[in-house]
Amino acid sequence: MEAPEEVRKTFERLRTEYPYYIVLARINGRFYVYKSKAWWDKESRKVRSKKEYLGRITEGVEFIKKVVVETVNQPVITAVPKYDFDKVDESILMHLSMNCRIPLSVIAKRLGLTLQTVERRKAELEDRYGIRYFASINYRKLGFSTYLAMVKFKNKKPSAEVLKEVSENEPRVQLAMISTGAYDLILYMLAEDNFVISNIIYKFTSDERLKDYEADWNTTIVTDDYGYVPLRDRFFDLLEKRVWKRSKETPRPASDSLMYREYVLLRELNATGNKPFAEIERKYGFGHGTAKYVFDRLKEKNLIWRLTLTMNRYNVKYNAMIVTKVVNEGIFLKDREKFLRYVIKDYEALANRFALMGEILAPFGNVFIAPILREGELEAELEWLNTQIGGIGIDSSIVTQIILGELCYRRVDNKHSNQMKRLVEVYKVEPPKEVINYFAE
């Protein structure tokens, strides 16, 4: 279905203003805007959606809000962020996703623009997509591994409020999502070892608010291979206990000790990745140049992976979790090169195709968190995996609510990905040409 250019522009403006997924429908020659909500239908095993009426776009492209709620079954134009911004915006977004502290003068020089133009474009991107900058921290170097708990309640389910109350008090839980389909609750956690994670699961299942709910708890270690989950600030309360303090037993810090100033900088940059170093120094009474020195030391110790961003106003219809279980390793290995290419394939959207992807051990396979932008997109992904990748079984869940933490929507350069590295090293694929250095100072 076609819509006038003016109507589309008005709709795109509305898409940036509403924090949830919206669609445009044409009914009897008029254009209406709806809030769209999706869920998993157990009986039909398909994604269903319900639309809530928000208002109408007039011939004069004015948006008139309505309070009436109705359902529409007409064909719709989905609110897909399909590069209404240009290649300059795309390049700026990618530079900032790879290194949010890269000097704008470097970007301006590369793109052949004035510094003022890049500053203006950056501000517009930040305002439109609700960009938040933060540091992706190498928690492995700090002694933590990532775990995923996938929970299926058998008869009745606890409320979202109860699940949030139980999970938010555990600083090792970084992300909690309510879903439908294969699983009802998904928890992404950082823990020191299997013993600690076992105690956390026991604490949850024996909690007075959950102990009467019969459920299957499937917990597995996950090796994050693509994407990142931002750390909650509560995690740093746990990390603070690891800061070196002089004592009889430890008169000097070990080579892998976490120093107080390192801890402070990690916590500050986790909250605001592009925070001026001078501001951090004033806050903690550090001497001039201390923050930059500590930052360089953190990079040398590989405690910071990347200074990156997430878009809080990325117009996602819903998020889906796809679990691919390897049932025949020999067959799967034959398609593994194709599988790696699938993870980093070009995708026409603001952010990368997947917010998170990693290998899991139980069941043995892979897990994907995919932001779904279009009607039928999840079904198409599942069909591709079923027909193109052998030796796997597939489960999927629709995320209906993120009750704790946040997903990371960004546009990193896949030429720098682990998948590209494996394609080059293992499958002897020709290395990509013109790889950009995003880490220039």
Plain-language structure description:
This protein is of the alpha+beta class and 441 residues long. The chain has a domain of 74 residues. Helix content is 32%, strand content 29%. Strands 7-9-8-15-12-14-13-10 form an eight-stranded antiparallel barrel. A hairpin with a 3-residue loop joins strand 8 and strand 9. It is globular. The N and C termini lie far apart (48 Å). About 4% of the residues have low confidence.
Throw out a few tags for this protein.
single chain, 441 residues, alpha+beta, eight-stranded antiparallel beta barrel, 15 strands
Q: Give the N-terminus to C-terminus distance in angstroms.
A: 48 Å
- Uncertain parts: 67-83
- Beta-strand percentage range: 25-35%
Morphology:
globular
Over all CA atoms, what is the radius of gyration? Answer: 23 Å
In helices, the fraction of residues equals: 25-40%
**Mean pLDDT value:** 88
DSSP helical segment count:
14
Q: Helices, strands, pairings?
A:
Blueprint: H1 5-17, E1 22-27, E2 30-41, E3 46-57, E4 63-65, E5 76-78, H2 87-98, H3 104-111, H4 115-129, E6 131-137, E7 145-153, H5 160-168, E8 173-181, E9 185-191, H6 194-205, E10 215-227, H7 235-239, H8 260-271, H9 277-284, H10 290-300, E11 304-311, E12 318-326, H11 329-334, H12 336-343, E13 356-361, E14 364-372, H13 377-388, E15 392-404, H14 418-425
Antiparallel strand pairs: 1-2, 1-5, 2-3, 3-4, 6-11, 7-9, 7-10, 8-9, 8-15, 10-13, 12-14, 12-15, 13-14
Could you give a quick summary of the protein structure above?
By secondary structure, this protein is an alpha+beta fold. It has 14 helices and 15 strands. A hairpin with a 2-residue loop joins strand 13 and strand 14.
